[in-house]
Protein: Shikimate dehydrogenase (NADP(+))
Amino acid sequence: IPNPSNPAHIMSDRYVVIGNPVAHSKSPFIHAAFAAQCQQDIVYERLQAPVDGFERAVSDLIAKGASGANVTVPFKQEAWRLSTRLSERAKAAEAVNTLSFQRGEIIGDNTDGVGLTRDIADNLAVPVQGRRVLLLGAGGAVRGVLLPLLALAPAQLVIANRTVEKAHVLAQQFSSFGDVHAAAYAELAGETFDMVINGTSASLSDDLPPLPQGVFAVGSLAYDMMYGKALTPFLQFAQAQGAAQLADGLGMLVEQAAEAFQIWRGVRPDTAPVLQTLREQLA
Ligand code: ATR
Structure:
């Protein structure tokens, strides 16, 4: 029988973020802050798995009694395949960023999409319902957010991608969840949107998706899923084009973590102070 007065018997629940690379992940900081705030006794560490060693790393974690894991690049699809049970949003995303290990089950969820929509709707206080939304990119990042975005009932959602066929495949797959269309960048000329979300990896290489001029409607929001010290080329372009509000993906990062924390611990942390601290660290 565990004796709570004897520290040797107090076992903290253990979580990790698995990725490769993972050294710069902010998840341990974020979850430690949530745990302190919610008085939850957890240990949260980084785990770098070899690119071909994800499954092994997960079996080891389960064998050692870990409670769950966040999954980051490049393992989100493998985590989806490995899960024995999946949430609806993880099924749609075909990717998993949050694993819970429970009684022999590997339960996979994906909190990236609600991370984005909570940041937009709650932190930035920008409504999505009835608005025209342009989503740039058709890779994993975009697939991961489509279901939660469509759940907010935008008037229309257009997916633009360099390789337009990939956008068509996504639009087709998600057509039963809302008014979603695909377009090539050049086809956006003459159209305006209330919200333009960059889900491409262009910002990683300091590139700008080939947007035509004039897509930002008066009062529009430009959102880049990437974050960093400086404005990305996309956000610089948006600013020059007259977007009313600019946002990077730091809020999405904190919100996806909060959702994972709630899945694991059953309590919802207050994200505002954690986001503020991260913002100060970046400055
Ligand atoms: P992720 O998992 O981050 O979404 P991915 O699956 O490799 O990564 O997808 C990258 C996305 O960014 C793709 O939509 C890619 O467009 P293509 O499908 O045409 O390759 C997009 N992308 C990357 N660099 C880009 C750039 N410089 N301009 C526009 N789109 C870019």
About this structure: The pocket of 2'-monophosphoadenosine-5'-diphosphate is lined by residues 137-141, 161-163, 166, 200-202, 207, 209 (CB under 6 Å). The longest helix spans residues 250-265.
